Amino acid sequence: MYPCDLVLVNVGRNFDEERSNFIAPRKGIYSFNFHVVKVYNRQTIQVSLMHNGWPVISAFAGDQDVTREAASNGVLIQMEKGDRAYLKLERGNLMGGWKYSTFSGFLVFPM
């Protein structure tokens, strides 16, 4: 899991700040989005959105000769009450903590 160093909104307290996990409060369809920025030249980053320990989607920023490069992705996931979603940094380093890299999740449709 990649730690969040600042949580801007946590209505319902469904984001576990200690573990950097979103915990579904009820069964439903949830939307997740993330945006990440890499920091070093000639380095690839890979970030995956995990659902209960399994990768759902990933985003990559390549090894171009630039100091900053961004990657984003988003998905809808059907979750059960108590399911967890979080970001996992598979490869590379992110820039500036969560000032430049963001993660959000919310309930779209309860079931």
Automatic annotation (TrEMBL):
InterPro entries cross-referenced by the UniProt entry = C1q_dom (IPR001073), Cerebellin_Synaptic_Org (IPR050822), Tumour_necrosis_fac-like_dom (IPR008983)
Which Pfam families does the entry mention? C1q
Primary residence: secreted
Note the superkingdom of the native organism: Eukaryota
GO cellular component terms given for this protein: glutamatergic synapse; synaptic cleft
Q: Where in the cell is it found?
A: Secreted
Q: Kindly state which keywords UniProt assigns to this record, in alphabetical order.
A: Secreted, Signal
Q: Which residues form the C1q domain?
A: 1-111
Q: GO:BP terms for this protein?
A: maintenance of synapse structure
Keyword Signal carried by entry: yes
PANTHER family tied to this protein: CEREBELLIN-1, CEREBELLIN-RELATED
- What is this protein called in UniProt? Cerebellin 1 precursor
- Whichever gene encodes this chain, its name is CBLN1
